[in-house]
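HUMAN: Forgive my ignorance: could you write out one protein's sequence and backbone structure tokens?

ASSISTANT:
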Amino acid sequence: MPDPALPHARPGPGAAGRLRRALGPVTPVRSTPLYGGLHNSAELIELDDGRRLVLKTAPAASAPALTHERGLLGTEALFHRLAARAGARVPAVLHHEPPGPGVPAEWLLLTYVEGTTWEAARAGLTPADAAGLRHRLGEELARVASVTGPAHGYPQPAAGLSASDWPGAFTAMLHAVLADAARFGVALPVPAGLLAGLPARFVRRLAEADRPALVHFDAWAGNIVLDRTGDGPWRLGGLIDGERAFFGDPLAEFVGLDPLGAAEDDPDLLAGYRSVAPGPVLDAGARIRLALYRVYLALVMRVESVPRAYGGEFAARLDTWSAGRIEEQLALLDALGE
């Protein structure tokens, strides 16, 4: 979302050139930085014909990043295209350009989803507003999960994190972030070998996810746009920032929805989901897989703090939280057993 306190500027020649490449002869009149993402940069571009677009640019290939963060804008373009075909509200993809000769950094051009994020609007939502929106969010996520991918795991070949089955893909994903931790010198709260052995320990449960469903995996309140007319009811405007998407267990979506909590226990969300498609059966196998995905997400958030150069109180809180989350989920796995 644009920050109204920031000064507007005319788009630079690089942005203007990209717009012409994607759209032909257009005239951009204003550019506003968008904040919230932590990897790619983004700006709101306003054209003289009234259109508002989002231009996203990846960092240079030499910038430090996690293994799965290769070609993220290609993943985002793929997610939005597939989700739109399934009937979900997402930005329209206008152009995606991978890096290559004359293109030093990957970039993506999208339509702008009007409104405000759920995170920004949260304080103004009544309990009834929130319940209705959670129901509609469940509907949207069921539509996203109806998409079946060609393989399990992250879709970009450069990452090398896909497989013919979910146990194989999740093993590769988890081992990659553990290798990233070693590469960036990130201390882990428990031995790396214990974490690396989790997929083999629970392979039978991971194999219960046998369809590579599309998973946004980052649909927290900052990536959900709400809209309303005047003082009218809030509407779900759309899901944005699909760059973290993968194909795999649709149950993983509930972990990305609420990194700090347990979205799978939200009755309004589940009712919305089940109004579109069969919802998750929260049996022992599902609880084990949810715990595994929470370990994975906590590891990703812990390790990315180094290449992102987080600092100060935020970095300290993230370090403490991720350690506690991992230890909590490992204890749960021990209790659930196999």
